[in-house]
Write a structure and sequence with these properties.
The complex is a heterodimer of chains A (154) and B (497).
Chain A: H1 3-26, E1 31-32, E2 35-36, H2 40-62, H3 76-99, H4 101-116, H5 121-142
Antiparallel strand pairs in A: 1-2
Chain B: H1 2-14, H2 17-35, H3 41-48, H4 57-82, H5 93-102, H6 106-139, H7 144-156, H8 166-179, E1 183-184, E2 191-192, H9 206-225, H10 242-263, H11 271-284, H12 297-312, H13 314-320, H14 326-337, H15 346-349, H16 351-382, H17 387-406, H18 410-427, H19 433-455, H20 462-465, H21 467-487
Antiparallel strand pairs in B: 1-2
Classes of the chains: A mainly alpha (154), B mainly alpha (497).
Chain lengths: 154, 497
């Protein structure tokens, strides 16, 4: 695998996206008596995207092979850490309105601290408390930025 | 004289205790954002927009502007102390600043950077005062055709943000334009690409997109490599010597000029003024071979250019409605969220607010100088925070930032989606700045074009026959042609296609 292959794959993905957007935009009004309709701009943008995607594929195919830069692929541990952040965001999205901000953040922060670095117990407890209940009181109660409270009223 | 009177009125508002406090808080938070590697000014400013939601518009914009130029200084601290720029524009400062720190002269480097930033920022703000009204009067002659052409000039400057590949930059720009298509059509009110989701009727919010692309994307990349700065620097003294001050005087003057002039040009970005300034100082030095070994000129010039640029880049934003960088694009988004539309009518419709913000720029520059010199030891201590804790804090702020916009977890999902996109773009070396710029400018351009064609009953020649619009179109085409020609150039190190 080299960067040429990576750009060929990326080009194909963009080409498929361009085709999809062109298809969807043809469902909208293209032109009206007053000028361009809602489908006008998305259609031509999808054409531009498709053209650039083809140029990307052609360039990647025709030029000298370019090796992957250092760090393009990372270690298993690296992917697990990045995956932990993604998982934390998914869980937060799913639970925030149901369980409320403080408890959701408490669980998420504990999970992330465990996955990313495992600082000592005291630091873990302080950071978890500050990031969950601390931030809730700071934003919701003091700065009046409403945050979800969930079942338990906090 | 009129500008001076309006500025004095602006000081009257900016000096109100609450607004002073907000400027102070903005400078503090902006410096913190600049110090923390892994979160840049764009994402940091976007994250802090929700904090300003409950405030009056004047206070909110004063605070956000303070965060913006505060972050420009904050990036210097990590460049000098741990050879890691807190934000991209401070990268060049690593060359000589870090060497100065290794020689025990970190205090001098940081102090000169603070003084230079103050001078550059203040003079650029004076320039803003002088240029703003005349430029606005000129811009009031703009109708929809001129506005469309102006936005096209702004978009053509995307090629200046190309980085190493023009094709990838253009792809990023087109993706940004397509993202902006989601939502209700501006003219006919028809939903586009909403797939039946009510949350998408207003399109993707700029804040979750930017937080995802710059904030989440960045922490995903950092989590892979678990990069952490380690600090082992002693500071002999906080104050620069008389020789340091003497050697820095001309670089500061030149840096001010470079930063101000480049700040007037949208699309230049914050990195170019610092690199141009460094190259200029090296060229004008009697000992250019010593650059990179701890030359104070290598810190004074670029850091001054950095802050002069930050203040001057507000000129095209306020007067023409063109954001010059992702961070000013965020500021533009914040202004629009507060019902204030940057551009030719800004000084007419919201003059009081704008002059208060300009006055607060002067105040903010003083605050930054007074704040940052004594707080250097605190910033130094902050850099020892472990990666896991810093990531958690960024995560929490991003969640709060995304959720609080419309009290909806949908925006957190949007942030996650764009975080993954930002991560993928970084891996593939596809620049992110064009995407953000076009996402902001695209809808304005579309509206300008469609209104123009309505005015002319579908006759596209209206764009060319109106002198101002025609001139701007020619400028846009020249910029595109020049950039494309440079992209095909065979000179080593130039942008490749």
């Amino acid at each position: 695998m080299n960067m040429n292959r990576a750009y060929q794959i990326t080009g194909v993905v963009f080409l498929l996206l361009a085709a999809f957007i062109a298809w969807e935009s043809l469902e909208l009004k293209f032109y009206t008596s007053n000028g361009p309709g809602p489908g006008f701009f998305p259609f031509w943008l999808s054409m531009a995207l498709g053209l650039l995607a083809i140029l990307m594929i052609l360039k990647a195919t025709l030029r000298e092979p370019e090796p992957m830069p250092e760090g393009f692929f990372t270690s298993r541990a690296g992917y697990l850490r990045a995956g932990a952040i993604v998982m934390a965001l998914i869980v937060t999205t799913a639970l925030l309105d149901i369980v409320g901000f403080p408890l959701t953040m408490l669980g998420t922060i504990l999970f992330l601290l465990f996955a990313l670095g495992r600082p000592g117990l005291i630091v873990t407890l302080l950071v978890s408390a500050a990031g969950s209940f601390g931030c809730f009181y700071l934003f919701d109660r003091w700065l009046k930025v409403p945050l979800p409270t969930g079942f338990f009223g906090f | 004289m009129e500008s001076l009177q309006l500025l004095l009125d602006g000081f009257g508002i900016a000096c109100q205790p609450m607004n002073l406090l907000l400027a102070f808080a903005g400078c503090l938070m902006g410096t913190l954002i600049g110090v923390l590697p892994g979160i840049g000014p764009a994402a940091g400013t976007a994250m802090l927009i929700p904090v300003t939601m409950g405030m009056n518009p004047t206070g909110a914009i004063i605070m956000l502007a303070a965060i913006f130029y505060g972050a420009m200084y904050g990036g210097t601290i990590t460049s000098v102390l741990i050879n890691t720029p807190g934000e991209a524009a401070s990268a060049i400062t690593c060359l000589d600043g870090y060497q100065m720190a290794r020689q025990g002269r970190a205090g001098s480097a940081l102090a000169i950077a603070a003084i230079g930033s103050f001078i550059g920022g203040t003079i650029a703000t004076m320039g803003l005062v002088l240029v703003a009204l005349p430029l606005t009067r000129f811009a009031l002659r703009f109708g929809p055709p001129e506005f469309f052409s102006l936005m096209l000039v702004g978009l053509s400057l995307v090629t200046g943000l190309a980085g190493r590949s023009l094709i990838r930059a253009l792809l990023s720009a087109v993706v940004g334009l397509l993202i902006a298509q989601v939502g209700i059509d501006l003219v006919m009110g028809a939903p586009r690409f909403t797939f039946g989701r009510m949350e998408l009727l207003d399109g993707f919010g700029i804040v979750p997109v930017v937080m995802g692309v710059f904030g989440i994307g960045e922490i995903l990349i950092n989590a892979e490599s678990l990069s952490q700065g380690v600090l082992n620097t002693k500071m002999r003294s906080l104050l620069p010597t008389r020789k340091d001050m003497k050697d820095s005087a001309l670089p500061i003057a030149r840096g001010t000029g470079v930063g101000f002039l480049l700040g007037l040009i949208p699309g230049v970005g914050a990195i170019i003024p610092t690199f141009v300034s460094y190259a200029m100082e090296k060229r004008m030095s009697k000992t250019p071979e010593r650059f990179g070994t701890g030359m104070i000129e290598g810190v004074a010039g670029p850091e001054t250019a950095n802050n002069a640029y930050a203040n001057a880049s507000l000129i095209p934003l306020f007067t023409l409605g063109i954001p010059g960088s992702p961070t000013t694009a965020i500021l533009m988004g914040a202004l629009m969220m507060n019902g204030i539309i940057p551009g030719p009518s800004l000084f007419k419709d919201s003059g009081q607010l704008v002059w208060a913000v300009i006055a607060s720029l002067y105040i903010g520059n003083v605050i930054l100088l007074v704040l940052n010199l004594p707080l250097i030891p605190m910033w130094v201590a902050l850099l020892k925070v472990p990666f896991s804790i810093m990531t958690v804090l960024i995560f929490v702020f991003c969640v709060i930032g995304a959720y609080s916009l419309s009290n909806s977890v949908f925006d957190i999902g949007v942030m996650l989606g764009f975080g993954l996109l930002g991560y993928a773009f970084r891996k593939l070396d596809i620049p992110l700045a064009p995407m953000i710029l076009t996402m902001i400018l695209g809808p304005l351009m579309e509206r300008g074009l469609r209104q123009s064609l309505e005015m002319s009953n579908g006759d596209v020649s209206i764009l060319f026959t109106r002198p101002l619009s025609g001139t701007l179109l020619v400028i846009a085409l020249l910029i595109i042609a020049t950039s494309t020609f440079r992209a095909f150039s065979t000179v080593k190190g130039e942008t490749e296609v």
